[in-house]
């Protein structure tokens, strides 16, 4: 396990980014994935539908094909699908977890977590021995939004924890895309996010919208 004080390497923070950033990051794997290129979070339901799985794979595949690192939270459902797709297609992925690096949650993703820690990048803001609680997962979403140039919500329900990342992305000035099916299902928080700058992602325009994502967290913003 390695450790970086967050403010040691992340320069030019805006006041809201500084307020939202963790004091330190613990990591295993290739830290350069936090230095180079664009990163996009792909998030959504743990109990994902078959259609949601296909959408997560399609979006993650497109990101990989365009040399964009896939970021997610190593949960079941959409998260695991996004990570696995990136790995299977030879892309890069970052997992931001809500537990210390030596814990596996869910346990079913142990082998996936080990692969990411070895060949990609696994990060946490919680030190070994930290007593994990439910509140740590929304905190994890804040960090995931912070290190990503954009967030894409694939599938969600009214009570989904995904909403935390959506609001954080908007608050931090990051791009937020919500798949059309989420809006069509009348998820109240998703519709409200459209009033604050979120965009609807459809099968017809996802490629153009994703390719237009700006480099908000590129290497020039880091100082080692």
């Amino acid at each position: 396990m390695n450790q970086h004080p967050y403010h040691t390497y992340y320069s030019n923070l805006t006041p809201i980014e500084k307020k939202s950033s963790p004091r330190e990051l613990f990591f295993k794997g290739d830290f350069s994935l936090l230095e180079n290129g664009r990163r996009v979070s792909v998030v959504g339901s743990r109990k994902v539908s078959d259609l949601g799985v296909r959408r997560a794979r399609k979006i993650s595949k497109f990101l990989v094909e365009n040399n964009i690192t896939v970021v997610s939270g190593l949960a079941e459902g959409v998260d695991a699908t996004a990570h696995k797709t990136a790995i299977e297609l030879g892309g890069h992925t970052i997992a931001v977890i809500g537990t210390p690096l030596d814990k596996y949650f869910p346990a079913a993703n142990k082998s996936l977590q080990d692969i990411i820690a070895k060949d990609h990048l696994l990060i946490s803001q919680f030190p070994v021995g930290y007593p994990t609680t439910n509140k740590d997962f929304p905190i994890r979403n804040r960090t995931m939004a912070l290190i990503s140039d954009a967030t894409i919500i694939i599938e969600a329900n009214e009570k989904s924890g995904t909403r935390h990342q959506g609001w954080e992305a908007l608050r931090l000035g990051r791009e937020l895309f919500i798949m059309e099916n989420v809006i069509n299902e009348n998820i109240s928080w998703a519709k409200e996010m459209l009033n604050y700058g979120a965009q609807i992602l459809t099968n017809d325009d996802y490629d153009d919208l994703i390719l237009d994502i700006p480099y908000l967290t590129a290497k020039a913003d880091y100082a080692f």
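The mean pLDDT is 90. The first strand starts at residue 2 and ends at 5.
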